[in-house]
Amino acid sequence: MKETSLSILRGDAWGEQLQNELARSSLSEVEWMQQHTQLLKSDSHSRVGLLQLQNSLCYLKFYQAKSPGQKILFRLGYSRGLRSFDAAKELLAAEVLVPDPLSALLSGGGMMLLTEGVTGAKDLKALWQEDIEQTLRGELMAAAGDSLAKLHMAGYCHGDCKWSNFLWSSRGFYLVDLEGVKKSRVGSKKQARDLARFTVNAEDMGVPHESYELFLDSYLRLSKHSRDTLICAVMPFLRQLRQRHTLKYGQRGHKILGEP
Predict the structure, then answer these.
(1) Is the pTM of this model over 0.85?
(2) C-alpha angle 232/234/235, rounded to 5°?
(3) How far apart are CA 53 and CA 18, in angstroms?
(4) Is the pLDDT of residue 177 over 80?
(5) Which of 27, 83, 159, 196 has the least C-beta neighbours within 10 A?
(6) End-to-end alpha-carbon separation of the chain, Å?
């Protein structure tokens, strides 16, 4: 059973729609999402799914409180869901392409974040693993560089630039999972780490050097950084991430940047 009804923290109109949907059921948030959404991810502390609200595709994430203390923090406004909602509003104002945040709600069991769902979109990792033409692979790399440069030039870092957080659509790449987004000085170490995180994924996926260069050239063109200066800033983070990746998955892929 639900512990309490949903309380809207952001986005009244969409929040009321979601409230009404859940009010028709006696199921818990987790059980309701299991039955009424197309689940994309499910683990012990979160659920992610797609659903239709107001004839629109929406993305819903439920953050389950891990402890009584975290429930209190959620009530005080400290949660990844709220950070993600507020970050999306800031990035849209800066003309960075992200899904429109629709509502954030507090529940008895945790926090719910409702955002725009991007129809027909696939993330970069999933696309790269498909049998797609080389022309499209080049387009994807260049567009990813463009997307990340726009974020950085707007004065932000993403915090988790893995390929699954680049969502490809007819409009280009949407950046998703915005919980770690922070304001960041252009050219900062945090922005260099974003580039390293993207690069270690490229290395793991075995991206050819010439394809990766399309990403890097696109990023450099918009960001106006010197190539040598940029690579020098990225390499310490890339070495750390490579080591961590190898310990977790073993040796795979190839080095694509810096030392051979």
Answers:
(1) yes
(2) 70
(3) 8
(4) yes
(5) 27
(6) 57
At residue 128, the 3 state secondary structure works out as: helix
Percent of the chain surpassing pLDDT 90 = 74
Q: Nearest 5°: CA angle at 214, between 156 and 239? A: 65
173, β-bridge pairs: 168
Task: Name the residue with tokens 């387009």.
Answer: 139
Structure confidence at residue 3 (pLDDT): 47
DSSP labels for 30-72?
A: HHHHHHHSEEEEEETTEEEEEEEETTEEEEEEEEE-SSHHHHH
Residue 1's pLDDT is 38
- Kindly list the structural domains of the chain, giving each domain's residue range(s) and its CATH number in brackets, ordered by start: 7-116 (3.30.200.20), 122-249 (1.10.510.10)
Q: Is residue 205 predicted with pLDDT exceeding 50?
A: yes
Q: Which residues contact 174 (CB under 8 A, 6 or more apart)?
A: 97, 98, 99, 118, 121, 166, 167
